[in-house]
Automatic annotation (TrEMBL):
Domain of life: Bacteria
Gene Ontology molecular functions: nucleic acid binding
InterPro entries (alphabetical): Restrct_endonuc-II-like (IPR011335), tRNA_endonuc-like_dom_sf (IPR011856), UPF0102_YraN-like (IPR003509)
SUPFAM superfamilies assigned to the protein according to its UniProt record, in alphabetical order: Restriction endonuclease-like
Family (UniProt): Belongs to the UPF0102 family.
UniProt protein name: UPF0102 protein EZM97_31065
Entries under Pfam families matching the protein: UPF0102
């Protein structure tokens, strides 16, 4: 499962870089949670959660980013900003990149500003 997650994170990172975002950090982990990707979109710091679901029996990939998960992401992003003060002044955005379906058939869906902090 972890290998599949890394594969989809790599795919998302490559696609976001292809459209002009710059990678700042990958798999930033704290005791509160993990940020899959931290990227720069122009002047905006973007915290990207990457999700993949093979089947929708337990809901879509985007539905798996619950309010509790969002709160963990916001808290972890706050810590990342505290450790990276040169980016602390930037506007921030939380994006979710999802892949639904089997590995070879899953298509990317990018939800910019998928949720707000606070």
């Amino acid at each position: 499962m972890r290998a599949a997650g890394a594969l989809f994170e790599q795919r998302a990172c490559a696609e976001l870089q292809r459209v002009g975002l710059k990678l700042l950090a990958r798999n930033y982990t704290t005791r509160y949670g993990e940020l899959d990707l931290v990227m720069l979109d122009g002047d905006t710091a973007v915290f990207v959660e990457v999700r993949h679901r093979i089947r929708s029996a337990h809901g879509s990939a985007v539905a798996s980013v619950t309010a509790a998960k969002q709160a963990k992401l916001v808290r972890t992003a706050t810590l990342w900003l505290a450790e990276n003060p040169r980016h602390a002044h930037r506007p921030c955005r939380f994006d979710v990149v999802t892949y639904d379906g089997p590995d070879g058939e899953a298509r990317m869906d990018w939800l910019r500003g998928a949720f707000e902090a606070g």
